Amino acid sequence: MNDNEIEKALATGDWGVDTESALARFRLRAERERVVPIVAAPRRRVATGWIRGLLEYARERGVEITTYTDYWARHSAGKEG
């Protein structure tokens, strides 16, 4: 395929999509079929096996395990920026 053929193949007209009427049809169908949104409950992230093992090892040796948020809340308390 040469440059002219590639140019010719890619030279398609702008078809123009009517998104407003498509959205209106979608809304009518959703209403007609009584579609209701379902919000999934947020899933708690589960640590992988090696992280759990590392945390367990640290706890056994008396290392305090804390979240990033708790750490910075504790260490920035009383400090004014």
Can you tell me about this structure?
The chain contains 4 helices and no strands. The longest helix is centred in the N-terminal third of the chain and has 14 residues, at 19-32. It is an all-alpha fold. It starts with a helix and ends in a 5-residue tail after the last helix.
What is the compact description of this entry?
The protein has 81 residues and is mostly helical. It has helices at residues 3-10, 19-32, 49-60, 68-76.
Radius of gyration: 29 Å
Helical stretch tally: 4
Strand content: under 5%
The major β-sheet equals: none
Averaged pLDDT: 83
By secondary-structure content and strand pairing, the structural class works out as mainly alpha
Number of strands: 0
Helix and strand succession? Answer: HHHH
The unreliable regions are none
Instruction: Give the termini distance in whole angstroms.
Output: 64 Å
Helix content: 40-55%
What best-fitting shape do the alpha-carbon axes yield?
elongated
